[in-house]
Write a structure and sequence with these properties.
By secondary structure, this protein is α/β, with parallel strands linked by helices. It contains 16 helices and 8 strands. The two termini are 35 Å apart. Bound molecules: guanosine-5'-triphosphate and magnesium ion. The site of magnesium ion has 5 residues, from helix 4.
Length: 452
């Protein structure tokens, strides 16, 4: 079986590049309106090609977020301290651990992981970035939400740090972060102060049912990133006894191994998925901007078709010709709108469009029936009132089709064969129950159903 990670990684690169090429060719006035999205897409392209995986740490103040990152990094790169609010701004650092996980731990978990994802022979070396953030309770309301949204939105993996068992507010924050369709590890730090804690007992202590559903003990890791000093009794050769304070070494090996095993097996998949999800969001914003930009021209196109349909249907004396013209002009309208916007014609939610086309034809048939049928095939003149009715219904049915076509085209923009939504949906089928991305499936499915 071909390497699934590599396959989706390549597809994600192709998807972002093709989006960039397409939207960079739009008229200059429209380009100015989507500049921010184009820049973000270009950032995603760079992130993919490096490839760079971003790990962001979240939690309330003083839980040891910075200490956990320092211990992972192996150096005191982020300031830490006993006062609340030591970290005031997000900061990032590149981390280059040896990506081959400890074989003992890797083989412990290998039976839980699909063999197709074990192969990393042909995978590019992932670079990592650790992002430290201020405590979620340090910054106030709106800016906190914006900061969390922005950083968590970009991050490929989230570490949520608590000090020992979580407080209810932490469970709530965890549940909120879990809604973001991002893989999440719950790091239970300061484990030196809670020697009896285990991942299993912590999982059992979760009271929030949504959190219970999306976490498992495997995503809970205990650490002691900066253990409190301990008193050590020294007996010297001359008989003296002294009590000294010693700093125990940080205990983050379990987190390090969990991360390395995860990155080794799912890293490229996580990165590809996250980039595709962000591309999907950006492209939906671009689609909105395009729909607004071409709004007037699209209205003019619709009006032209509606009036043409009304006139031709009223003038034609044959029912069969009326119905044929009605159907043809409805389809022409869909094609012209697709051309006007430059959106692809896809199979996504096409049933809705077919239904409206059928309703339009049905309405036309009813109008013909109501205004006199051409029984002998020689045509009938339905009278002026009948003609007016046929014309009005022709225009009305065309307007129904116009509206349905616009919704269908905007919805379908991300659903081309190499479109972001198509690839995300295909990726969903690759998730196996042992993978961390598996628990994201419901949240990801929701993003697929969302409207632009
Ligand atoms: N006992 C113990 N103390 C720890 C541990 N990890 C961190 N600390 C201490 O907890 C305090 C807060 O650590 P920080 O890393 O600054 O915490 P933070 O979450 O980054 O805090 P803010 O930046 O203020 O939000 C420091 O005094 C650390 O020494 C640990 O594993 N055990
Ligand atoms: Mg900090």
């Amino acid at each position: 079986m071909p390497d699934t990670q590599r396959q989706y990684y390549d597809s994600a690169i192709a998807c972002v590049s093709s989006r960039l090429t397409r939207y960079q060719q739009v008229p200059i006035e429209l380009k100015a309106l989507i500049q921010a999205q184009l820049e973000a897409l270009s950032g995603l392209q760079q992130k993919l090609t490096q490839p760079l995986l971003q790990i962001a740490v979240f939690g309330l103040v003083s839980r040891g977020k910075s200490a956990v990152l320092n211990a992972l990094f192996g150096d005191a790169i982020f300031p830490t301290g006993p006062l609340n609010g030591v970290t005031q701004w997000p900061r990032a650092v590149r981390w280059s651990p040896e990506l081959a996980p400890n074989p003992a731990i890797a083989s412990d978990q290998s039976d839980q992981l699909p063999s197709s994802h074990l192969s990393s022979i042909h995978l590019p070396k992932i670079q990592l970035e650790l992002i430290d953030t201020p405590g979620l309770d340090e910054i106030s309301g709106e800016s906190r939400a914006v900061m969390a949204q922005e950083i968590a939105g970009c991050a490929d993996l989230i570490l949520f740090v608590t000090a020992g068992p979580p407080m209810p507010i932490e469970q709530q924050a965890l549940a909120e972060l879990a809604q973001l369709a991002k893989p999440l590890l719950w790091v239970v730090n300061k484990a030196d102060l809670y020697p009896d804690l285990t991942a299993e007992s912590l999982y059992q202590s979760i009271t929030d049912p949504t959190l219970q559903a999306i976490l498992s003990p495997r995503e809970i890791v205990l650490t002691a990133a900066a253990p409190a000093p301990i008193q050590v009794r020294h007996e010297w050769p001359d008989g003296r006894v002294s009590l000294d304070w010693e700093l125990p070494v940080p205990q983050v090996a379990a987190l390090q191994q969990t991360l390395l095993v995860l990155l080794h097996r799912e890293g490229l998949l996580l990165l590809s998925l996250n980039v595709l999800l962000q591309t999907q969001t950006l492209e939906r914003q671009i689609v909105q901007a395009i729909a607004t930009f071409y709004g007037e021209q699209a209205s003019a196109t619709r009006w032209r078709i509606w009036s043409l349909k009304a006139v031709l249907v009223s003038l034609s004396p044959w029912v069969w010709l009326d119905l044929l013209l009605s159907g043809l002009l409805d389809i022409v309208q869909v094609r012209q709108l697709a051309q006007r916007y430059g959106f692809p014609v896809t199979n996504h939610r096409i049933e809705g469009l077919w239904k409206t086309l059928a309703i339009s034809l049905g309405l036309m048939g009813a109008a013909e029936f109501g205004t006199g049928l051409d029984i002998d095939g020689l045509g009938v003149f339905p009278g002026l009132a009948g003609l007016a009715t046929q014309g009005a219904i022709a225009a009305y049915s065309a307007s129904l089709v116009g509206r349905a076509a616009q919704t269908y085209l905007a919805d379908g923009a991300t659903w081309e064969s190499q479109g972001s939504s198509t690839l995300i949906q295909a990726l969903l089928t690759e998730f196996e129950s042992t993978m961390i991305v598996h628990r994201l499936s419901p949240a990801i499915t929701q993003t697929l159903d969302a409207k632009p």
